[in-house]
Write a structure and sequence with these properties.
By secondary structure, this protein is of the alpha+beta class. The protein is built from 5 helices and 16 strands. The protein has 2 domains: 155 residues, no CATH class; 187 residues, Porin (Beta Barrel). Helices cover 25% and strands 49% of the residues. The longest helix is centred in the first third of the chain and has 28 residues.
Length: 376
Amino acid sequence: MKFHSKTCVVLAVLCAQLFSVGIQAQVSKYRQNRLYWSEGPVSLERFSGGNTKADSIVSTIIYTIEPRYQTEKIDGVVYRYLKCEAYLDYDACRLNPRYKNSESARKYAQTLLNIGEKYARIATIDMASVDNEQHQDILNYYFKRAEGAIDDFSKACSGGKDTLAVDRLYEASVADLDRTFTPTDYVDYKDGKGLGVYIGLGGDFPNGKYLGNTYGISAGFDFMTKSKLFFNLDLGMGFGGTCGNDFKAGDVIIAKGDKFYSGRLMLNVGCKAYERKKLIVCPCFGIGVNFVGKSDENDKANDTGALSVGAGVHIDIPFVREVHLYNDLFGRSTYSRGLRLSPSVCISNYTNEIGRVIMFNFGVSYFIRQSRAVRK
């Protein structure tokens, strides 16, 4: 019998898919036989058969500490971190048949898992305060600490045969877990050095008899330092302004009633005067240039510019604030996005007929900011 090459390819793909499904089923079955601490108490009914060590009612409980990404929201702030959790493998758990209905045996097994969970939580806290490269060393260290504590526990209760000691040490293991924390329980974070960007709509409202109001785009970049100090590069373009009186711009005369465009480029320095989770107020002042102009019939821009000084305030209203307690662009970082209101005023000195102009600016924009997370 002959097969076409396409038929062979289809059969090969189907075989590969069946093999993949089989592997996934085995992995899924394996993971189903794990019990993570957060999934509930240990069940003796799920233990595999087999002999235990002579000096223990329960033995060969294979547990480990596994780090997984965790998300936790507290007071509107989303914390993301690597959470370590202890689990045991039921396939490797052995129970002396004489104790299959023993509450003391269940407490013995649960205490083993509780001890692993205690050191998993301590590892979680340490991993949130160091660089990613140190995580494996931390896991290895606390896994060995947990192994030592489990050996001490097993000896203290004669491998589970001393039921009074099992009860006492089980209660102690529960109390230990009540006294352990997550990285969000005792540490608060603020923004350190970082970068931000914003874009939105804005308007320029000048005084005097030459320039009318313009409306357009407001955008810029923020550069945060370790302290409350920050630098800001602010950009703006406005359109639709109506000339109040004739003035010269480049090679053309912008006549009364003509439409013109405006723009600005300002370098500001400021500080965070008020900072809360839902409101950040940052006064600033700076220096830069403002310009107005008009395109001629050949679409050539004809501008006239002026040196400007200004002052204003950035009012940030974050919608989302996250703290990442693992390394990314800035190491452990804060990430926020939201609404920015930017009222400001600037004084510009034009060298032509316009002269000195006082201009009020107002912008509404959407900002995104990422900074290094610094403990308060």
